[in-house]
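User: Could you go from structure to sequence for me? I need the amino acid at each position, not a summary. Structure tokens:
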């Protein structure tokens, strides 16, 4: 990778991106899975997700870009370079959303990447290296936990067979949902799972308030905090709500609330750096007049310090050992993703690109996780953040300004060109 070393001092003289086209693409994508409150519901491998991918593939085919797909459904859109055998410079993000998601989370990085490809075309720029835009499958992990599923499988952190077997709340597994999507997409070239490339840069909204509060144009992302995901199940016994005395009950929901309260207390962090969330809880059979016989809930745990995370992990598994109020507990670790620090050469390139356009920028560690977490384990990786309104995300009110999304895409274009020209 010493070729990358030569890019520290390069300042960008890249072509101007077309901000109007980028904004129009974002608005067109936002129509797919649009919700009444102005957000999107385009969960992984749903019809809406498929329609979003089809729209992107349409735009890509208008430019003659080649599309391919890997066994977990990660989509690759390739702009050829003069030397096809050189490893590509990569960019990308995700099109799937939360159920009450926003118009920019993930989509922005995909469409900013597309904008870079199209800008190079518009300016007749032929690069030495190919350039690939990746649409990672199921970054959100809302329909099929855990998050960053597609990139984790591509990186070898999550076995393909395990991921394909994961079911949604209706009992549909990833394998069947992926088959349905593939049947609806145009025929795509298939490719093996792999996480190789010359470098990877992802553009994303910050999903936090820092950049906006400091009136920054872009964030130079230096890394991502660690994330653990768990699925906890308690087994009780269904019983009649009217006839069963409390002392005879094995109420899985009451036991789950006790357990969640105990874990929450154990996760106490006066500095408020630890992020502990129970975002999903399923009650079975879910009838108002039957004592719950089974409860399944998910824990999402995040922290920038790997040791702090491991200590919290130990406490959770200890509290989940055995049973609670007569209900046996089982705990499944879905994901242990360590904090990651991005490659300082790529980070420097992003910083140079922002500086080269006289933008106000700030170094920032990502609180949210991203597919860049897994690319960083295999490829020199960096990220660019743009501000979003009040830092709101995973919420239908998520919003970003046209000028900011354009600035981020411009930095992405300049940084990728700087990296392209780094080959010797
Ligand atoms: O959960 C996350 O951090 C990401 O937005 N899916
Ligand atoms: Mn995202
Ligand atoms: Mn998200």
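Assistant: Here is the amino acid at each position, in order:
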């Amino acid at each position: 990778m010493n070729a990358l070393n030569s890019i520290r001092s390069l300042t960008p003289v890249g072509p101007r991106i077309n901000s109007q086209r980028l904004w129009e693409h974002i608005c067109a994508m936002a129509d797919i899975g649009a919700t009444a409150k102005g957000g999107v519901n385009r969960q992984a491998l749903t019809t809406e997700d498929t329609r979003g991918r089809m729209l992107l593939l349409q735009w890509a085919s208008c430019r003659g870009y080649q599309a391919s797909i890997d066994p977990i459904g990660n989509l690759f859109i390739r702009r050829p370079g003069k030397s096809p055998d050189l490893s590509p410079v990569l960019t990308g993000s995700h099109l799937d959303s939360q159920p009450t998601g926003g118009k920019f989370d993930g989509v922005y990085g995909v469409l900013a990447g597309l904008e870079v490809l199209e800008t190079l075309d518009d300016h007749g720029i032929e690069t030495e290296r190919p350039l690939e835009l990746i649409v990672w499958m199921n970054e959100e992990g809302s329909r099929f936990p855990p998050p960053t599923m597609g990139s984790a499988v591509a990186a070898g952190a999550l076995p393909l067979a395990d991921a394909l077997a994961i079911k949604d709340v209706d009992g549909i597994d990833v394998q069947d949902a992926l088959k349905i999507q593939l049947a609806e997409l145009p025929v795509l070239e298939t490719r093996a799972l792999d996480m190789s490339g010359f470098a990877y840069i992802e553009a994303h909204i910050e999903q936090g308030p820092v950049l906006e509060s400091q009136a920054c144009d872009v964030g130079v992302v230096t890394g991502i905090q660690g994330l653990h995901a768990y699925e906890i199940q308690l087994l009780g016994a269904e019983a009649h709500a009217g006839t069963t005395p409390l002392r005879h009950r094995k109420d899985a929901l009451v036991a789950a609330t006790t357990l969640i309260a105990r874990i929450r207390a154990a996760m106490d962090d006066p500095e408020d750096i630890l992020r502990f969330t129970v975002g999903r809880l399923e009650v079975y059979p879910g009838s108002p007049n039957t004592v719950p016989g089974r409860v399944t809930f998910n824990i999402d745990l995040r922290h920038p310090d790997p040791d702090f995370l491991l200590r919290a992990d130990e406490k959770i598994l200890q509290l989940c050992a055995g049973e609670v109020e007569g209900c046996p507990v089982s705990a499944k670790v879905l994901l242990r993703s360590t904090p990651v620090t991005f490659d300082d050469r790529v980070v420097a390139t992003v910083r140079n690109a922002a500086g080269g356009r006289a933008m106000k920028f700030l170094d920032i560690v990502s609180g949210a996780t991203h597919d860049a977490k897994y690319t960083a384990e295999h490829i020199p990786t960096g990220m660019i953040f743009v501000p979003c309104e009040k830092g709101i995300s995973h919420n239908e009110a998520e919003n970003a300004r046209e000028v900011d999304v354009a600035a981020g895409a411009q930095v992405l274009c300049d940084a990728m060109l700087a990296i392209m020209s780094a080959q010797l």
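One structural detail worth keeping in mind: Residues 116 and 413 are 5 Å apart (CA to CA).
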